[in-house]
Amino acid sequence: MHKKGKSIIRYRNLDVRVTEKPDSEILNLLDNTVLGSAGGLRHQLTNTDKRIKAYGKNIRFVSLYIKDRLAGTVGLCYRTSLSAAKEHHSSYIRYLSFMPMFRTALKRKEPAAKTSKQSWKQEVFAFFRKPHLLGFPGYKQGDKHIVYAYIESHNERSRNLIEQVGLENIRSFITVPFSRFYPRESLRVSNLPVTDRDRMKNILEGFYASHSFFTSEFSFYDDKYYIIKEGDNIIAGLAAFPNAFRIVDMPGLKGWLFMNVLHRLPFLGKLFNPREVRFLAIESIYCKEGREKELEEIIETACAREGYNLAITWLDDKSALYHRIKEKTSSGIVEKMLDPTPAQVYAGFVNYTDEEKKEFRNRPAFIPGFDFT
Predict the structure, then answer these.
(1) Which residues contact 316 (CB under 8 A, 6 or more apart)?
(2) Which is nearest to 348 in space by CA: 90, 124, 155, 103?
(3) What is the pTM of this model?
(4) What is the DSSP letter of 169?
(5) Helices 156-164 & 100-107, crossing angle to 10 degrees?
(6) Which of 242, 230, 234, 244 is nearest to 44 (CA)?
(7) Distances in Å between the alpha carbon of 80 and those of 48, 96, 136, 145?
(8) DSSP secondary structure, 265-293, as one string
(9) Above pLDDT 90, what percent of the chain?
(10) What is the pLDDT of residues 263-311, one digit of tens each?
């Protein structure tokens, strides 16, 4: 094995290598990656190394080298996801980063004359269609497999690459922020006891039975799952992970106000500082019908206990849960200021029939908040 990983694909002077852990060169690339694209919010994550470690043995870095020089890397996280209570081998594209010298080549579409032949991109990125090359535990060649990614609406560069390697747009989702200037703690809210985790996992699997891509992989990460109980019944719950990112650029007049004015004001400065946007990432939301207001109570309590004023979750914008939360909870001032637009879920299906693919287009997608931290 090469010191920089195992070579899985060679094409002319390009070499694709896979590693279970990122070396310092890959980490440096990821740490300096600016997410987003021109015309939209551009930001940097601040805890890349910690999050990579959380994925443990279920992450692979597939890196492209040109004459032994790193040109880019893709981080894929393997998980067994649920759709209609059926298990599916799945890989989520967690990181996608390329050196500036290589971005132009990725953005450029192949001439029409070449469409009947394999382009260099199809050759180099064949691992999207051949997941057995990545050595994920429990996955065998010939098994069904789904590779999926989340793409912002304005991110043409990422969307162009994802489409060229064979992924297709199947669903959309939206960012839902909750903000409070002075979050209040409720004594009704408690951390889920370890002894109740299996029970809560079963509840979540039932609650999201109509969804695709459901996973409880990080629902109970770092003991951050909060619940409200009545007697022995759990009526509402959610996971809330402390996180932060740094804003690099935000376009337009609204962006200028966010970057230069609003964070200097006494109250709004609590919610928004472009140098460090601190928030709780929310996922694995559960509540009984008609008890949506309890979600507000839990989020406020989590914010108060963790010392945060902002929480963010991501929901399929055509799901019943999104509309329940939208109609029956108060999200606060940040949502009104940001007016978020839907992003896209892209997926590539290996060994699936057209009829089986249709199931994923017709079901709301579960969007784990942990994957955005």
Answers:
(1) 171, 172, 173, 211, 322, 345, 364, 365, 366, 367
(2) 90
(3) 0.90
(4) E
(5) 60
(6) 244
(7) 23, 21, 11, 10
(8) STTHHHH--TT-EEEEEEEEEEE-TT-TH
(9) 61
(10) 787 777 777 788 888 999 999 999 999 999 999 999 999 999 999 999 9
Q: What span, in angstroms and rounded, lies between the C-alpha atoms of 213 and 364?
A: 9
Residue/partner pairs of 18-21 with CB below 8 Å, 24 or more apart: 18/60, 18/61, 18/62, 18/63, 18/127, 18/133, 18/134, 18/135, 19/60, 19/61, 19/63, 20/57, 20/59, 20/60, 20/61, 21/52, 21/61
Banded model confidence at residue 108, pLDDT cuts 50, 70, 90: low
Three-state DSSP class for residue 61? strand
Q: What share of the chain is helix, strand, coil (3-state, %, to 5)?
A: 35, 35, 30
How far apart, in whole angstroms, are the C-alpha atoms of residue 175 and residue 164? 26
Grouping H, G, I as helix, E, B as strand and the rest as coil, residue 362 is helix
Q: What distance lies between CA 357 and its chain's CA centroid?
A: 21
248, pLDDT greater than 60 = yes
Of the pLDDT bands very low, low, confident and very high (cuts 50, 70, 90), residue 116 is: very low
Beta-bridge mates of residue 266 = none
Task: Calculate Rg over the CA atoms of the chain.
Answer: 21
Domains of the chain from N-terminus onward: 175-342 (3.40.630)
Tokens of 118: 């394999």
Cα–Cα distance measured from residue 128 to residue 147, given in angstroms and rounded to the nearest whole number: 7
Closest CA to 280 of 177, 157, 368, 354: 177
- The segment with the largest mean pLDDT, out of 24-38, 66-80, 263-277, is 66-80
Q: Is the Cα dihedral 28, 168, 60, 285 positive or negative?
A: positive
In sequence order, the β-bridge partners of residue 5 are: 2
